[in-house]
Amino acid sequence: MDATASAKKANKPVKVFSFQDVAVSVFANEHVVEGKKATFYNLAATKSYRKGGKYMRTHSFAATDVSNLCFAFQQAAEYVRNLQFLNPEAGK
After folding, report:
1. CB-CB neighbours of 37 under 10 Å
2. In this structure, is residue 92 part of a structural domain?
3. Does the residue 81 lie in any domain?
4. Given CA atoms 53, 57, 62, 66 in this order, what sign does their dihedral have?
5. pLDDT per residue rounded down to tens, the chain (92 residues)
6. Cα separation, 52 vs 9, whole angstroms
7. Structural domain total, the chain
8. How many angstroms separate the CA atoms of 76 and 92, rounded?
9. 9 within a domain of the structure (yes/no)
10. Residue from 86, 11, 83 nearest 40 by CA
11. Which element (helix H / strand E) includes 18?
């Protein structure tokens, strides 16, 4: 796999948790640490909205989005915990 293909693969989330108009994406990043391959997980949140008939995304949230964000983050966190339970070396 060349560097370009590897970069494209790294940018795709392994799972997305959506609730109403917010979504939390889980990204897996593999690195070599002390000679061993380790997987680190990162989360990113987005909000969808319509502008001029087109769907757009933002990383800014209103105070009214907090409960929806919390719900999506809780689902994502549980998913990551389960991944780390199946692979205890992940994220170390």
Report:
1. 10
2. no
3. yes
4. positive
5. 444 455 555 579 999 999 999 999 999 998 898 998 889 999 999 999 999 999 999 999 999 999 999 999 999 999 999 998 876 655 44
6. 32
7. 1
8. 19
9. yes
10. 83
11. strand 15-19
